[in-house]
């Protein structure tokens, strides 16, 4: 019915509202009247068969968007893939039909697998606004049946790329996160590769933490691998350490997380669906899952850990994944460094068997690598741990890591630790009694990690160590003065370290 | 701790993201690094003691925001109240503390009155993002205790202006909405005023409907009254018909509604809190509440109507309001016109006692005015209805309306009905059996109402009327060709009127 004269010319607007699509319409628009589109705010932009949902914003500035134009913000412009000046039409977007299922869920009903499939598909294709995603997440957080959880995990795995491997045994190792410096994957993968199992590891970048495995690996090598790159590297070297965001595994999860994080929604069910959907999409068959338990970790009690383990085991079995859940000590950071460069230094110290390499990072990596190797039917039961240590001590794991780095593409010149430094020192004699993982992560992040590879924290004392008044507990590294000031201010207020039963406060040495 | 050099100059950006505050930072910013602010996205802008929360958007266009500037979108610029070039600082906003209560609510806990007060205050001051509002609303939609509802109603009333009147009896009449053309307030208010009770009526503008009482009254008079204007008009004429949005009653409700509407969250509890908080803030003491019941109305069964009535009565009693709930026929639109000009014509036809004035609008207005007059202790019980008719028939109500219009400020030149017209005609002989309020409202809205005062629908047949094939059922009025096409297309697909048991489709005469 629409007249043929209702076309707008698209214009690129250099405004980044990622991950949301935003378009701009002039209040003096000659083709449409912006008031018509205010109530719902989401509009559908179409050019032939190409369609895109976007949030409409009205502008009074003709240099941003002229009356005969549709301004298109950076993410929408990228997704639309049209040249400036191309003709498009706009219409009020009909809300996604799957929202009806969300409304029924809010009303207390259970969702069918078809409902969930439709919701997850709409979420992955950016048809839901943040408030609609929040509605779905909160309704699900109040109760989720195991059938709903299974359907969610499957739908999320199917929402993006699904990698197929020509091998019966594809192993993986995953940690639920929350412990700074816990970079065991970068040691486990080369050990497993050296043994001969296939471990195509994908990892995330940090969202709220000071570094993700992908950020730390990037200090040493290129991590933005395509699926073909991954297959080539794994074909050559048995393992890779790639950034998962680049290969579009479970994209629905990437969208959901943009709402889960700010709302701090962190249910067992969402964690299970998020982790297992990505493993399923990555083509894994056997997984070792590391659940750190500690007072400032994500899982804070043994009871919670067991409940999470049972749910992981149940869903894994239903979707055909073999899982081995390992509880580890989540009381403090692992290793010494927190932040990409400092963590990469620790990893290489372990792989090169340096005498001062962090013992806890080494021990934990061997434990997890051993459990992964135990999946190998050729090994005697329980022999994985010893085999892992052989491969590490002999330098075979290091050689595997060097080959993986070469195959992925070695980083041109390694980044260095940030040159602005300050030390937090003990204010009394005593034993280090506790470390707040969450606070230490925040200080490292304020210092600039992971944006600045060299920023972060270098720990000199760990729980159980003796400290004398004036002994440095850790050093902050920053690359920029403003970050440095923010990090110091937070560490000054509370360092996150307890000595002799008291939080160390107000003690910075520059 | 922050250095004294971290100031940005503010620059007005003519982008309207109302009701949300948006600010723009250059990716090449020389003072802050935008990456630092991405994770949370909400930032706090401060200039001395002035503080404002806003969503941060990154731009690559120096003409929008230069590297030493902070671009400030229209709503934030208005709220900040500073001149361009003024110096501001920015910092990651700490999420509102009251979100902890929302998280506890999601976890199944009951909120205290203090929790609710803190949440509503933060919502009213724009500290919540849409996703955070959605989280609060959905968590509340799954269960709300009566104590929570009471605390919510009180907190919402206290979130903005509270009007005080020097009179023991301040009456009001309110309809829960959903029925096109239901403009009884514009007849009830002058009747009540002519009798001598005080009725300071505030009404909303349409959000998703084709007209609100404020939109229709605006055809005749200025409705953007300040509190002082309202007091002056009511002092002179006993009643006013003002736009509530202008006097900031229950502003938290105005924010919540921006999320409730798109999510179609419509619980009894939210309706009760929304309506009664506004009445409490407006200083009303006695209210007649009109609940239309019908298959396409907001309340669709007698059971639902009774549950809503009881909840309204309970909360009213607790907060000290006298309420009289009236169930009315919500099966079809009231009167003939749908849209501001056409509705105003119907209202004036009733007030001037024209023989062809819509009988249903007249009867319903007399019913409701009678119930309001029954609040007058000076009248014999049940005498209100007769008294209302006397005042209408004698022309005293019309005279009161003319004085109210003069006191508010008569509209300069009355708008006319839109000149683009098309008629929907019956496609067979038969009786009009049903009318879809929701669909008729949507067609009228597409035709341009309420933005174009003259746009809308003029109904010629109502339920029970006989129609012969070719008889016009209603006429669409538009002011712009594109709206006209959209409205006709929708009416063509399904007119929203049933004749002889079948929906009338595909029959338009121009």
From TrEMBL, chains A, B:
InterPro entries (alphabetical): Glycosyl_Trfase_fam3 (IPR000312), Glycosyl_Trfase_fam3_N_dom (IPR017459), Glycosyl_Trfase_fam3_N_dom_sf (IPR036320), Nuc_phospho_transferase (IPR035902), PYNP-like_C_sf (IPR036566), PYNP_C (IPR013102), Pyrmidine_PPase_CS (IPR017872), Thym_Pase_Put (IPR028579)
Reaction equation(s) it catalyzes: thymidine + phosphate = 2-deoxy-alpha-D-ribose 1-phosphate + thymine
Ranges where the Pyrimidine nucleoside phosphorylase C-terminal domain occurs: 431-498
Protein EC: 2.4.2.4
Keyword Ribosomal protein tagged: no
Enzyme class: transferase
Keywords on record: Glycosyltransferase, Transferase
SUPFAM superfamilies, sorted: Nucleoside phosphorylase/phosphoribosyltransferase catalytic domain (SSF52418), Nucleoside phosphorylase/phosphoribosyltransferase N-terminal domain (SSF47648), Pyrimidine nucleoside phosphorylase C-terminal domain (SSF54680)
PANTHER family named among the record's database cross-references: THYMIDINE PHOSPHORYLASE
Family: Belongs to the thymidine/pyrimidine-nucleoside phosphorylase family. Type 2 subfamily.
Protein name: Putative thymidine phosphorylase
């Amino acid at each position: 019915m629409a007249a043929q004269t209702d076309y707008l010319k698209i214009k690129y607007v250099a405004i980044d509202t990622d991950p949301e699509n935003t378009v701009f319409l002039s209040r003096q628009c000659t083709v449409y009247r912006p008031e018509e589109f205010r109530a719902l705010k989401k509009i559908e932009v179409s050019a032939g068969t190409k369609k895109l949902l976007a949030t409409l914003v009205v502008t009074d500035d003709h240099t941003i968007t002229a009356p005969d134009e549709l301004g298109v913000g950076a993410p929408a412009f990228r997704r639309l893939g049209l040249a400036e000046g191309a003709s498009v039409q706009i219409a009020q977007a009909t809300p996604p039909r799957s929202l009806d299922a969300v409304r029924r869920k809010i009303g207390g009903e259970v969702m069918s697998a078809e409902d969930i499939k439709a919701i997850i598909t709409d979420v992955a294709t950016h048809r839901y606004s943040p408030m609609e995603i929040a509605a779905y997440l909160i309704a699900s957080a109040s109760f989720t049946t195991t059938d709903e959880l299974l359907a969610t995990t499957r739908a999320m795995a199917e929402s993006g790329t699904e990698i197929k491997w020509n091998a019966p045994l594809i192993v993986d190792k995953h940690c639920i996160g929350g412990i700074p410096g816990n970079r065991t994957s970068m040691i486990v993968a080369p050990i497993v590769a050296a043994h001969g199992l296939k471990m195509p590891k994908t990892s995330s970048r940090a969202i709220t933490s000071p570094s993700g495995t992908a950020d730390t690996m990037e200090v040493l090598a290129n991590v933005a691998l395509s699926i073909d790159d991954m297959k080539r590297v794994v074909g050559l070297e048995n393992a890779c350490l790639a950034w998962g965001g680049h290969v579009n595994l479970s994209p629905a999860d990437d969208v959901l997380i943009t709402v889960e994080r700010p709302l701090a929604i962190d249910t067992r069910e969402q964690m299970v669906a998020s982790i297992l959907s990505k493993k399923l999409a990555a083509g894994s068959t056997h997984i070792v899952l590391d659940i750190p338990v500690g007072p400032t970790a994500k899982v804070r009690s043994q009871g919670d850990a067991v409940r999470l383990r049972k749910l992981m085991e149940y869903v894994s079995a239903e979707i055909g994944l073999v899982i081995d859940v390992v509880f580890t000590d989540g009381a403090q950071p692992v290793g010494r460094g927190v932040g990409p460069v400092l963590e990469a230094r620790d990893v290489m110290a372990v792989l090169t068997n340096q005498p001062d390499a962090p013992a806890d990072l080494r021990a934990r990596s061997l434990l997890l690598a051993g459990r992964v190797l135990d999946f190998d039917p050729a090994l005697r039961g329980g022999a994985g741990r010893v085999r892992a240590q052989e491969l590490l001590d002999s330098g075979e794991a290091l050689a595997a890591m060097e080959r993986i780095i070469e195959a992925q593409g070695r980083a041109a010149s390694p980044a260095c630790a940030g040159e602005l430094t300050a030390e937090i020192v003990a204010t009394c004699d005593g034993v280090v009694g506790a470390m707040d993982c969450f606070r230490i992560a925040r200080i490292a992040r304020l210092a600039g990690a992971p944006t600045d590879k060299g920023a972060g924290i270098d720990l000199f004392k760990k729980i159980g160590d003796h400290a004398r008044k004036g002994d440095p507990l850790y050093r902050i590294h920053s690359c920029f003065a403003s970050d440095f000031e923010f990090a110091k201010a937070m560490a000054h207020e509370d360092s996150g370290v307890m000595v002799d039963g008291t939080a160390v406060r107000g003690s910075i040495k520059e």
